[in-house]
Write a structure and sequence with these properties.
Layout (H helix, E strand, L loop, with lengths): L2 H22 L4 H33 L12 H5 L4
Helix pairs in contact: 1-2
């Protein structure tokens, strides 16, 4: 996966996230539960994409092959200490 395809994926997820957040204010309670679940999934996928993009850039900066970076699982990415 190239940096460009990861960035495109990020852009698509951000657009979906914005759409879900705007619909939160107008939807019924039943729809809200589904949308909140999808919103959480989008947030996790965004974190995974950003992590992969950062790791690819770090490998490139270190003179290594960025294609060696693989997407980490959601549990790993979501449990980072900040």
């Amino acid at each position: 996966m190239s940096d460009e395809s990861i960035a495109a994926r990020i852009e698509g997820l951000v657009a979906e996230e914005h759409d879900l957040r705007s619909r939160e204010q107008t939807d019924s309670a039943d729809a809200l539960a589904d949308e909140r679940e999808r919103l959480r999934a989008v947030e996790v996928e965004l974190d995974r994409c950003w992590d992969l993009l950062r790791r690819r850039r770090a490998l490139r900066d270190a003179g290594a092959d960025p294609d060696e970076a693989e997407a980490r699982d959601a549990d790993t990415v979501e449990r980072y200490q900040q």
